[in-house]
Each structure stands twice: as C-alpha cells, then as structure tokens.
Specification:
The complex is a heterodimer of chains A (296) and B (542). Chain A has 13 helices and no strands. By secondary structure, chain A is mainly alpha-helical. The longest helix of chain A is centred in the last third of the chain and has 36 residues, at 260-295. Chain B is an alpha+beta fold. Chain B has 2 domains: 128-280, Periplasmic binding protein-like II (Beta Barrel), CATH 2.40.430.10; 297-539, Orthogonal Bundle (MetI-like fold), CATH 1.10.3720.10. Chain B has helices at 2-14, 20-62, 66-84, 89-115, 128-138, 205-210, 212-217, 291-298, 300-335, 343-355, 358-368, 375-380, 392-421, 424-432, 437-465, 468-474, 494-503, 510-535, 537-540; strands at 140-142, 149-156, 159-165, 172-176, 182-183, 188-190, 193-196, 201-202, 220-221, 230-232, 238-244, 246-249, 254-257, 263-266, 272-274, 279-280. In chain B, strands 1, 2, 3, 4, 5, 8, 9, 10 and 11 form a 9-stranded antiparallel beta sheet that branches. In chain B, helix 14 (424-432) packs across helix 15 (437-465). The two termini of chain B are 26 Å apart. The chains are: A mainly alpha (296), B alpha+beta (542). At the A-B interface, helix 1, helix 3, helix 4, helix 5 and helix 6 of A face helix 1, helix 2, helix 4, helix 9 and helix 10 of B.
C-alpha cells in the first residue's frame, strides 16, 4: 500500500529506490500486518452478531452492536460491574502508588539520613521479587486478616488495593528517584530561604516539576493493575466483586463454547481506554522506561 | 525549561506589593494560615489512623491475638511519634510506603519461604486444637436422653453464640463455636429462660430463620474438655447435648473411635494416624523441615514435571528475550533512516500490540489458535487442523510466537531510543576508517547499544521468567503431562505451576507450592546479583 514510488524532485530507478528505502517499507508493512491483524480480528469479531468462534472468522462479514448489548446485559457475567471494579481498583492503586512513591523518592533524593543507602539498595533488591511470587502467603494472610477485619479480607476491593500498595515502593520509587535528582536543588534552597518548610516545598514546588514522571508511574501502575490476574483471582471470589481480567478469563475458559463475539466486545471496550491513555502518553513512557533502566 | 519557569514564578512572587507593611502582614497571614492548615490536616489524618488502630486493637483483643496486637500498638505509637516530632523528617515521607512494603511484600515473601517448610494445605489448615475440635464436631451425635436446653441465638461483633439456660439448675451461660459455655450474670429472664444479656445482641425470630444455615452449624462446646460434647440447636429455640463418637485423650495424644474402637495416634505427621496408616482428616499444620523438597526430588510423579517445567521456564524466558530483542533491533535499524517516509505511521501501528492489555492479547490469540474453529487454521491456512495449542511441541512454539508479538514493540522502542542516542560522529569516524556498514554496526554500534540495553534485557528475562498471564491464558499450561500427581502441563512455567499446585485441583498443597516458589527465589536472586554486577547500579548510589 505504501510502496508507491515517493520520488518527486529527483527521478530514480525503482531499483535504486528499493535499495535505499523501499525494502524498509516492505519489512515495515509485513511486520505491521503481523502486529495489527489480531487487533483487527478482535474488533471484527466484536462487531459480529453471531456468538461463536467460527462465526467470527469472516472479517467484517456482518456489522452490528448486538454483542456489545449482550455483554453489557448478561446477568451471568456482570461486565459493567467488572469494568467499574477494575476502574476503581486501578485508579485508586495508581493514585496512592504515585503518592507513596513520590514521598519516598523526595526523601531519598533531597534528604541525607542514616539508612538511606540501605533503603535504596533494599528497594532495588525488592523490586526483583514481584508480589505474585508470594501469592500463597498473600492468600493466607488475607484469609487471616479477613477473619479479624472482614472489611479488608478476601473478596474485598479494599483488601486487594492494600495488597497492591505493598508493591508501590518497590516498583516505582527508583524510577522516580532518578527523575527527582534531575530537579536542581537550588530551587529547594531558594524556597527554604523564603521560609517554606519541607512539606511546602514538596507539595507546591517539587510535585509540580516532576509531573511527567508522576504521569508515567501512574499509568504504568494503572496498566499493571488492570493486567494483574494472580492475586486478583485468588482474592476476589464473587463474580460481582471480580475485575475484568478475572471475569473475562473465566468467560472464555473454554473458547469453543464461549460467546466469542461478546467476549470480543468486552475486550474492545476494556482495551480502548488503556490504549488511548498509552498512545497519548507514549513519549513519556518510553523516555521513563529507558531512563529508569539505564540508571538502575 | 520547566526549571526556568519555576524560577521566574518564584521571582514574580517576590515583586514588592505597594507598601512594606502590607507585605509583612500578607506574608504573616499566609504563613500562619498555611501552618494551621497543614497542622489541622495532619491532626485529622493522624486521628483517623489512630481511630482505625484503636478499632483494630480492640478486635485483636477479642480474638486474643496478643502478638499482632502488640505490633499494632507499637506501629501506631511509632507513627504518632514520627509525625508529631520535629525531627525525623525523612521518616515522615517514608513511613506509609515502608509499612505497606513490609506487610504485603517483605513479610509475605518471607512467609512464603516459611510455608515451604510446612505441610500447609487441604487437610492441614489450622492448629492442632482446631483440628481436634473439627474432628470431634464432624463425629457429633445427639445424646439420646439429652434434656432440652432453652437457648437464644445471640451475636457479638458478627460472631454467633448461644445463650443457654440449664433446665436443671437454672444456670445461664453463653458461648460460641470457639469459646466454651461460660456462666454470665444479669441476663434478662422471660418465663424461666434467658432471652438477652449485656454485650450480646439477641437475634429476632425472623433473623434466626434467615440465618438458619449458620445456626445449624453452631456447636458450642459444653466445657474446656472437648469430650464433654457441645450444645447444638436445630431450630434456634431448644438446644441439645451432642457428644462425639471420637474420644480425645490429650495426655496420650490419641483419638479413639468409640464405635469401632480404633485408636488414632499423633505420630508427628500432622494428623491422627491409626496403626494401619489410616489418617483422620482434617489434620493440622506442622513444620516438616525439608520434606517438601525431598518429596519434589524423590517422588517420580513430581520430579518429572518439575524438571521439565524448570528447563522450559529458562528456555521460554531466554528465547523470548532473544527473539523480541532481535526483531525489535532489526526494526529499529530498518527505521533508522531519515529518508524513509511514514515512519511515524508505522511506529504507531507497531506499538499497538504493546498498548493492548496483555491479558486480552493472550485470550484473543488463544481463540485464533484454536484447533478446530480458530482464525489461523480456518482462514489463513484454509481449513487446516494444526494443533497449535494442544501438541506439546507446537504449543511451546505458539507460546513463543505470541510472546514475540507481545514483546517486540517494547524492544523496538527501546532500541530506537538507544540508536538515536549514539552520536553521528561515531558513524562518520567508522566510514573514514573504511569500515563497511555491517562492520560499523557489529563493531561499533551494537556494543554501544548493548551498554544501554543490557539492563533492560536482564529485567525482561526476569519478567518473562514469571510471565504467568501469557501461559495461563494462552494454553493454561497444557497439554497436560501424563502420569503426574500435580495438575501441570508441557507449557507450564514455574510460577504457573506454583499457582496450580496451590489453588487448583482437588487438593491445595500450599507447602509444596511454596517450596517451588523458593526455587524461583533462588533463580531471581542469582539474576539480580548478575544484573547488579553488570550494571554497577548499587555503586552509583550516593
């Protein structure tokens, strides 16, 4: 599609063009098809009024919103509820994660105290051990906690958010720490001379200047939470309480008998907000990923 | 850029207002209001924390959890000290994160390690006392000549109990499933039977009906000695004495079935076991030392899958990193040409798989790769029936293909960034010295690129080593191994094996699952050490 000759000013032979940039287009088109066709497939399947996997194979053969209506109104699979649960859990986790991480990064970046180095090393080490490795202990801990305090035990969103917050320091502080270090200390000092306390400097000056990294960490945490299956599936038992990842996985646990187009409709609706956010912030994300990596 | 604007802003704020007095007054007022505002906020937040801690302490007190109670009190005092003290400024910023980190990550990781040395799992869920109580209760039978005890169902903090009036001596006592009957004073009497008592809420008739299932399960021990039996009430009105057909001898540590006369002994395996090896379940949780590890190594039906799964985990993670990196690098090189058009358009298309939520991708691919109805077999291959996900070898290939799809955009972005970071002079110098493009790439650019990308490759390996979602949602670990005692399959990796052993199947074996987790711990620790050596990240800290 894009392999038409782009020359205008200077005429070149097809061979010369191909040797210079043409083959690049060829590779790019092939890989783009590989990248995009599953997404096209799921979008087409979601518009297909027929429910089965076989029915979804003819791309865009029929277009309708029946399956969107089906997935939103199916009492067996409360999709809207899952969506809302996911949104609440991921947004709250994202915000609190950003706040906790920013506080810690501020302390590590701006203050000198006993145990600072040990603290930083601990954070780097802990982030190598993701929480899902401890899923057995998390399940048992939350069962016990639930016996004492039902409000934060198994099958509660609060409990799940608390568990996710356990990963807040480990995963993101180092990324933020690197960024905080790039903000000149002279700003703090100027503010301090003007009589501002540490809290004031943090909330009114630093937090504004590090906004890009806050957005990146918030989004990474949001996406991470949306995708998190292990802990969520173990902790959330009632269908009404579950998140999208748990509910949708269960919905298509047997793809042969599942209402495939309803699942696809659900997948499209779940993916769109995430993808829009991602593409919107991709510049920052890529910068953040590489910066964090080269530093740590 | 943003720095200068902030400085300008700060300077702008300092431009003098009309008179000096006004300025002073304004700054004093602002400072004062600010302080009070912060102070109030701090006090309100701390008050909330303290109120929650107080509630927690109270609940823990009623459950007699002294160690946890002490910890809660200690942490609360510490938190109050930190936030009221004028010193300890760093602690003010670190405390919230550290508390969460310790409770939900450090503690749980250590606890997982500990569980690996216990027999925790189905049938071994609690303490020995709980096991004894559960066994006795499961074998309870109503005493035939039991008098009818008038009872009232009562509730305290969500726990149901029975308020019992003894028909013979008129004693009033109250107890729950866990607390044996204890005498109480000052109960409200109605027609010779107690109907209410301070500290407990009596359930109305309608409530009793609504919760009849829970009430039928209620079995209040008659005394501290489990052999004395328990009061149960079928209807919430009258209770009867039930005794167990099992007899527990605490001193000898035996459980005797009074019907058959079989003696079950506590032989240190976490369950009462008869002379011919029959176990009474539920048992209880004990530390079993290295038994889980010994079992994993010696039991053929566990060792086989464990070895295959471990090898596959490494193969999967290595090939995933290599394949995504090479495709990403190739694309970055292809796109690293300013004369090429539509680069941004391609770029957006190529990172779409990265933006699409990963769990959905795996589920969609699982549908497309379905053997009989999937898009790939039916449409692309025109009705072939290739067992993409059900053949042991092909399933592994499929997993790798899907992971390539999922992972290459990330590597592409990273390599693009790294290539753009290499200055043009390097290239020119190479050309001057007569190197061909391949030599420039191989000898100059690739080593420079690897310096930037190596840490990312290591963390990508660590991520794929635990890439649970892909495996679980694409193949669910299948196809299953034959002749194994744990529910794992050819494409399972260590973490999905842990999950399956712990949470799926007939029996949950937390001990064995945690023992497997320890293997992952060791691997991850080795990876971290290598990665720290390589990147010298820890030396850079200052």
């Amino acid at each position: 599609m894009t392999t038409t000759t782009p020359t205008k000013a200077r005429r070149r032979s097809f061979g010369a063009w191909f040797a210079d940039t043409g083959w690049r287009h060829l590779v790019a088109v092939v890989v783009s098809i590989f990248a995009v066709f599953p997404l096209l497939y799921v979008f087409s399947a979601s518009l297909n009024p027929q429910g089965t996997l076989t029915g979804s194979n003819q791309l865009f053969s029929a277009v309708g919103i029946d399956s969107y209506v089906r997935i939103l109104t199916d009492p067996q699979n409360p999709y809207a509820k899952w969506f809302l649960n996911t949104l609440i859990i991921a947004v709250v986790t994202g915000f609190v994660t950003v706040f906790i991480g920013a506080c810690a990064a501020y302390a590590f970046s701006r203050m000198r105290f006993a145990g600072r180095r040990v603290g930083l090393v601990t954070i780097v080490v802990v982030q190598m051990f993701p929480q899902l490795l401890a899923v057995v202990a998390i399940f048992l801990l939350m069962t016990t906690l639930g016996d004492w305090f039902p409000a934060i035990g198994l099958n509660t969103h609060t409990g799940l958010i608390l568990v996710y917050l356990g990963g807040a320091l480990g995963v993101n502080t180092y990324l933020m720490y690197g960024f905080f270090n790039t903000i000149p200390k002279e700003l703090d000092e100027a503010a301090r001379i003007d009589g501002a306390g540490h809290a004031r400097i943090f909330f009114t000056i630093i937090l504004r200047l590090v906004a890009p990294i806050l957005a990146v960490v918030g989004l990474l945490s949001f996406i991470g939470t949306v995708n998190e299956y292990v802990v969520a599936s173990v902790m959330l038992i009632d269908p009404e309480q579950q998140t999208l990842v748990v509910g949708l996985t269960k919905l298509v646990s047997n793809p042969r008998y599942a209402d495939w187009s309803a699942f696809s409709a659900g997948a499209v609706m779940a993916a769109i907000p995430v993808m829009v956010l991602f593409l919107f912030l991709q510049k920052y994300i890529v910068g953040g990923l590489t910066a964090g990596a080269t530093k740590g | 850029m943003s720095d200068t604007t902030a400085v300008e802003k700060a300077e702008a704020e300092q431009t003098p207002p009309p008179t000096r007095r006004q300025r002073q007054a304004a700054s004093i007022a602002e400072a004062a209001s600010g302080r009070i505002g912060w102070m109030l906020l701090k006090i309100v937040l701390l008050a909330i924390v303290d109120a929650i801690a107080l509630y927690a302490a109270f609940v823990l007190f009623t459950h007699h959890e002294w160690v946890v109670l002490a910890l809660v009190v200690l942490v609360t005092v510490l938190v109050n000290y930190i936030y009221f003290s004028r010193k300890a400024v760093p602690a003010k910023y670190l405390t919230p994160g550290v508390i969460f980190l310790i409770v939900f990550q450090v503690f749980t990781l250590l606890y997982t390690g500990y569980i690996g040395f216990t027999n925790y799992g189905t049938g071994h869920n609690g303490s020995k006392d709980q096991a004894v109580a559960a066994l006795m209760r499961s074998a309870q039978e109503r005493v035939e000549d039991s008098p009818a005890y008038p009872v009232t169902v009562v509730e305290q903090l969500g726990t149901l109990g029975l308020l019992v009036t003894d028909p013979e001596d008129g004693d009033i006592s109250v107890g729950t499933n866990d607390q044996p009957l204890a005498e109480v004073d000052g109960a409200t009497m109605e027609g010779g039977e107690a109907t209410a008592v301070d500290g407990w809420t009596s359930l109305s008739f309608a409530q009793v009906l609504a919760r009849s299932n829970e009430i039928e399960q209620l079995s209040v021990p008659f005394s501290d000695d489990p052999n004395d039996g328990a009061i149960r009430t079928p209807d919430g009105q009258n209770g009867y004495l039930y005794v167990s057909s099992l007899e527990y001898d605490e001193a000898a540590g035996t459980m005797t079935d009074t019907d058959s006369g079989t003696v079950y002994k506590d032989i240190g395996t976490g369950a009462f076991t008869s002379a011919d090896g029959e176990e009474l379940l539920p048992g209880w949780q004990i530390t079993v030392g290295f038994d889980n590890f010994v079992r994993a190594v010696t039991d053929e039906s566990i060792r086989g899958p464990l070895i295959s799964v471990t090898i596959w985990t490494f193969v999967f993670a290595l090939i995933s990193v290599a394949s995504t990196f090479f495709l990403g690098l190739l694309l970055a090189l292809v796109f690293n040409n300013t004369r090429m058009r539509f680069r941004n358009g391609y770029r957006i298309l190529l990172i779409l798989p990265y933006a699409f939520p990963a769990f959905l991708s795996a589920l969609v691919w699982a549908g497309m790769m379905n053997e009989s109805f999937g898009f790939i077999n039916q449409v692309i291959l025109g009705g072939a029936s290739i067992p993409w996900l059900t053949d042991p070898v092909l399933a592994k290939v499929s997993v790798l293909i899907v992971n390539l799809w999922l992972g290459f955009p990330y590597m592409f972005l990273v390599c693009m960034g790294a290539l753009q970071g290499i200055p043009d002079e390097v290239n020119e110098a190479g050309v001057m010295d007569g190197a061909n493009p391949w030599q420039i790439f191989r000898q100059i650019k690739l080593p420079l690129l690897l310096v930037t990308v190596a840490p990312l490759l290591i963390s990508s390996f660590a991520f794929n080593f635990n890439n649970f979602n892909l495996i679980y949602m694409l193949t669910n670990g299948g196809p299953r191994f034959d002749d194994v005692s744990i529910p794992v399959g050819h494409t399972d990796i260590l973490i999905s094996m842990v999950y399956k052993v712990a949470f799926t199947g007939q029996t949950r074996d937390y001990g064995l699952a945690s023992a497997f987790t320890i293997i992952i711990f060791i691997v991850v620790a080795v990876i971290s050490i290598i990665s720290f050596r390589k990147t010298k990240a820890l030396e850079e800290l200052n």
